Amino acid sequence: MAKKTIENLDTAAILGRRALVRVDFNVPVKDGKVSDDTRIRAAVPTIEDLKDRGARIILLSHLGRPKGGGPEPKYSLKPVVPVLESLLGMPVAFIEDPAAPTAVEATRELPRGAVALVENTRFQAGEEKNDPATARMFAALGDFFVNDAFGSAHRAHASTEAVAHLLKPAVAGLLMEKELGYLGGLLTSPARPFVAILGGAKISGKIDVIQNLLPRVDRILIGGAMANTFFRAKGAATGTSLVEDDRIAMAKDLLARAGDKLVLPGGGVAAPSLERAQERRDVAWNAIPDGWALYDIDAATATRFAEIVAGAKTVVWNGPMGVFETPPFDQGTLAMARALAAATAKGATTVVGGGDSAAAIEQAKLADKVSHVSTGGGASLEFLEGKVLPGVAALDDA
Ligand code: ADP
Ligand code: MG
Q1: CATH numeric code, 6-175
Q2: Per-residue pLDDT, 375
Q3: Which residues have beta carbons under 5 A from ligand 2 (an ion)?
Q4: Domains 6-175 and 190-384 belong to one CATH topology
Q5: Which ligand is nearest to the Cα of residue 381, counting in written order?
Q6: Residue 10 and which of 116, 216, 317, 354 are 20 to 30 A apart at CA?
Q7: Does the predicted TM-score (pTM) go above 0.85?
């Protein structure tokens, strides 16, 4: 079911009203400074749109994992204020304690087009419990609700779920709309051929994605450590490679059911350890030397995968092909990033989901050469698993 967005609200519904906007400002902070402002920049289009239409904007976000029993300075959202001020080119007010009576007053005194940021929602004990009283406290800060925090939509928290039932209209922001459009399109109406590339550390974390995508895709290309568990399922020895022994039976079952939809690497880059990379060599999947591990797909596999991607009209990529954080084991992952960029240039719709995969495409400097890089790691995974995201479900239907 499609959700109502801020684009569906006419200006009369916005002008002069207090927009309570849940954003995802869960950014890394080092020495009191934001070290990566990607998520803040991602929320700017929604803030600008509401600002241009005369709303008074109150922003809610969580940051990190505080205990939830009150303020903890290292998880304060204060370092976000100067970053937001420079991105918006205007001052941003800070509401330290949303539960204080002065907080509601502060939002009422906010001029049209002005912006206030509320301190970390997780300083409230009721936030992660989706507590109704906490949600009422947040709801008192606005006249209508906008959820632009796709990355938090898989959690039913007071500021993502309960509050959406209390403030109406409750609509999606532009970033949320974009995420739902691209990810939803994969599941409902993908142009074919539709190819999924799945990798990363563990098959256990991705099994539900494989299950949900299998009937929808034309091919699933498997890389990363996940492939090792499949190699074991096919009877190979995998040395010291990362394998989930308790998932070998499951991998066997998948291989039996998937037929030729599931494409495994023909080989990988093996080494005695990550530190002894200079001894690395390409080996076949069933010839991994004793005491060695696979840390990447081999060049021949990368080429074969890239050829399949080149013929696709829709591509989704989740999970690196190797230990991309440790060159030279980044080559397979970089090759996939280039393959996605090339397919995009030829008109394919390409979507990258998952925190490490997003980092990898950034590392390859190709993030702007694919159709969409999801800002929500866990949320995009749950979406691809076919799960209902509570923060989305609670929004008004279009
Ligand atoms: P994402 O965040 O994109 O969903 P994951 O968290 O599932 O991806 O997996 C990313 C991790 O998988 C990376 O830290 C990477 O080093 C690891 N990885 C990939 N291939 C291998 C491998 N062959 N051996 C060990 N770790 C691997
Ligand atoms: Mg990850």
Answers
A1: 3.40.50.1260
A2: 87
A3: 355-356
A4: yes
A5: 1
A6: 116
A7: yes
What confidence score (pLDDT) does residue 377 get? 85
In this prediction, residue 294 carries a pLDDT of 98
Is the CB of residue 20 less than 8 Å from the CB of residue 141? yes
| Domain definitions of the chain by residue range | 6-175, 190-384
Q: What is the CA radius of gyration of the chain?
A: 23
pLDDT for the residue 233: 97
Ranges of beta strands (E only) in the chain are: 18-22, 29-30, 33-34, 56-60, 92-95, 115-118, 144-147, 170-172, 194-198, 219-222, 262-263, 267-271, 281-284, 293-297, 314-318, 349-353, 372-373
Residue nearest to ligand 1 atom 9, measured at CA: 200
- Give the Cα separation of 88 and 9 in Å (integer): 22
CA-CA distance, 283 to 267, in Å (whole number)?
A: 5
**The token pair that represents 242 in the structure block:** 């990362």
Look up residue 100 and give its two tokens. Answer: 């204080």
Tokens found for residue 20? 């309570």
The HSE-up count of residue 8 (CA atoms within 13 Å, CB side) is 15
Mean pLDDT of the chain, nearest integer: 96
The owner of tokens 């039996």 is: 256
> Any idea which architecture 190-384 has in CATH?
3-Layer(aba) Sandwich (3.40)
Stretches where the chain sits below pLDDT 70 are none
**Ligand 1 geometric centre to CA of 323 (Å):** 6
Residues linked to residue 352 through DSSP beta bridges, in sequence order:
317, 373
Spatial CA neighbour of 154 closest among 395, 390, 346, 393:
390
Rounded distance, CA 276 to CA 220, Å?
A: 31
Q: DSSP states of 141-202 as a string? A: T-SEEEE--GGGTTS--IIIIIHHHHSSSEEE-HHHHHHHHHHHHHHH---SSEEEEE-SS-
Question: Nearest ligand to the C-alpha of residue 238?
Answer: 1
**Ligand 1 centroid to 173 CA: how many Å?**
31
